[in-house]
Amino acid sequence: MSEARELKTQVVKEIKEKIEKSKSFVIVDYRGITVAQDTELRAMMRKSGVEYKVLKNRLVKIALNELGYTQYDEALNGPTAIAFGMDDVVAPAKILVDNAQQFPKLEIKCGMAEKSFIDKNGVKALAALPSKEILVAKLLGTMQAPIAGFARVLKGTLSGLAIALKAIADKQN
């Protein structure tokens, strides 16, 4: 096997590993954005734990097809970059959609969330979801509410009993 072919095989293997390890990814067409905009976008991605890479379409297509994902073949045309969300499913979509006005030439093509294909509208819907931290906080608040309510009822009952006993004691004096 030639050295170039071995190198491409290794790159395909690395892409497959990224796809398997990531919780989500978004495929974008970056044609028309400036170097300064690209640098700013990459900084935002890094800050959120998102890996943003420009990869060869043919190699990405091979990797996805080997993993059984053929829905992406159409999206892998023209200049393509992929934002991999390793920790947070929402992060890549949120960064790209929230900054769409700042980078108007950046076009979202499609993506994957939890190993399922999502189209452009699906990426926008995913971006509208609250972050993981907010969802966990809401869940904990919901779980804590009945316990807090029960504690208030008990406190109210005990306070009422104490007030009644004090009133009875005052009457007798």
Description of the molecule:
With 173 residues, the protein is an alpha+beta fold. The protein is built from 6 helices and 5 strands, in the order αβαβαβαββαα. Strand 4 and strand 5 form a beta hairpin. Helix 1 packs across helix 3 and helix 4 (91-98) packs across helix 5 (120-128). The longest helix has 41 residues, at 132-172. The model has no long low-confidence stretch (mean pLDDT 84).
**Biggest β-sheet description:** 5 strands, antiparallel
From the structure provided, what is the oligomeric state, counting identical versus distinct chains?
Answer: single chain
Sequence of secondary-structure elements: HEHEHEHEEHH
The percent range for helix content is 55-70%
Overall mean pLDDT: 84
Shape: elongated
SS-based structural class? alpha+beta
**CA-to-CA gap between the ends?**
104 Å
Low-confidence spans: pLDDT under 50, at least 5 residues? none
Radius of gyration: 26 Å
Structure summary, number of beta strands: 5
Strand content: 15-25%
- Read across the widest sheet, the strand sequence of neighbours is 2-3-1-4-5
Total helix count? 6
Would you kindly provide a brief summary of this structure?
With 173 residues, this protein is α+β, with helices and mostly antiparallel strands.
